[in-house]
Amino acid sequence: MRTIIYNGKGGVGKTSVAAATARRCAKLGYRTVIMSVDTAHSLGDCFDVKLSAEVINVEKNLDALELNIIHEMRTKWSSIRDYISAFMISQGVEDITAEEMAILPGMEMAAALFYVLQFKDSGEYDVVIIDTPPTGETLRLLSFPDVSNWYIDKLFGLLKRMVSLARMTVGKVIDVPLPSREVMDSIEDIKDNMEMVKKILEDPENTTIRLVLNPERMPINETMRAYTYLCLYNKTVECLIVNKVLPPEVDGNFMKKKLEEQKDYMELIHEAFDPLKIMYAYQLQTELRGFEKLDEMADMIFGDSDPAEVYAETSPMHFESEGGTDMLYIKMPFIEKDDIELFRGNNNSVIIRAGDHKRTVALPMTLSDAEMLGAEFDGEDLVVKFKRVKESGK
Ligand SMILES: Nc1ncnc2c1ncn2[C@@H]1O[C@H](COP(=O)(O)OP(=O)(O)O)[C@@H](O)[C@H]1O
Ligand SMILES: [Mg+2]
Predict the structure, then answer these.
(1) CATH 2.60.40.790 in the chain, residues?
(2) Ligand 2: distance of its center to the CA of 40 in Å?
(3) What is the distance in A from the centroid of ligand 2 to the CA of 315?
(4) Which of 5, 7, 16, 293 most suits a substitution to test ligand 1, by most atoms within 8 Å of the C-beta?
(5) CATH code given to domain 2-149+194-302
(6) 301-341 pLDDT per residue, tens
(7) What is the pTM of this model?
(8) What are the pLDDT digits (tens) for 89-141?
(9) Residue 127: closest CA among 30, 232, 195
(10) Whose CA is closest to 197, among 141, 126, 139?
(11) Which of 25, 126, 188, 394 is least enclosed by beta carbons within 10 angstroms?
(12) In the chain, ranges of CATH 3.40.50.300 domains
């Protein structure tokens, strides 16, 4: 099963691109399901079809779902929900409703990832497309399998201690309700599921992330950071989709000026993302709504190629850490291996200049005040070494 995750800043066109991809996949005969995880759902508008919180069929080979976390909370996870409620009441907090639990961080993406598991188990789809909420939130959520395991380990440990403490203090009043066997089992299940989700998410032959952006400064900056963090979390970013590119034939002074501006931003995009595969979609003049428009968009982005293809099984950038040294690996093929210059750029970035080429990489927070030790080539990869000034966050 192929899983394609679309991400990017709000308004850049994630939902449109995801919907266009889904429609093209279905047309090519792939059994496709598209899931919208954003709370502000617009997938239904895009298809011009009313969607729901349950999977429904949109057309031949195409199913869709607008995930609603409150619905998920009400229909699933009931034993844990009941337990957390009981726990809250014991702590003097009013009964907690499904609506309130739904706002716990990470719940939405966790629910989405459980659907991915369910789809994989059932074997009913060839392609799963996920339209995610804007960058920052999703980054947190995509690292969720790691975070949640830590969280669940803690919770699980705490609950186990509570159970054994209860045994030791028989006769005394314990003012915290003990988790039932069922609750403990559900937590075990979630933990197992998260392990499986993590395996699916980090399997580069099947699961990849596509970043959508516009040729404008803010989306470029945000996407650079997203790219860095995704690489840091071992997720495969396989391509970039630059949407709302002005067609070269625009007229009028204002538009011509915009076009010039976009040229500069395109350059910036190459500086930050080469040799990542880049695909383009022009800005359409009419509203992007309905199957016909989505087909037009799919034509611009994919042409005759297969939109479910895995464009790259590795991100051209990754991080490693060894004996107190952090290493940033960036694929830089066809580059003269001498005269490499490194600079610190704005916004916690590093600028790499090698001959005529310039690369700008956003650094993760953990390396914000690290010392740059230098760079060397390891095959096609340029390796930039950092020494952290102080251990952070441990
Ligand atoms: N290539 C395009 N040409 C014209 N309008 C577009 C294009 N891509 C997206 N839009 C419009 O831009 C708005 C935001 O797109 P959307 O897909 O909802 O973005 P996101 O999901 O990233 O917030 C929508 O009104 C959509 O119809
Ligand atoms: Mg959207």
Answers:
(1) 317-387
(2) 7
(3) 24
(4) 16
(5) 3.40.50.300
(6) 999 999 999 998 887 888 888 888 999 998 876 666 667 88
(7) 0.82
(8) 665 656 656 556 555 556 677 788 889 989 999 999 999 999 988 866 666 66
(9) 30
(10) 141
(11) 394
(12) 2-149+194-302
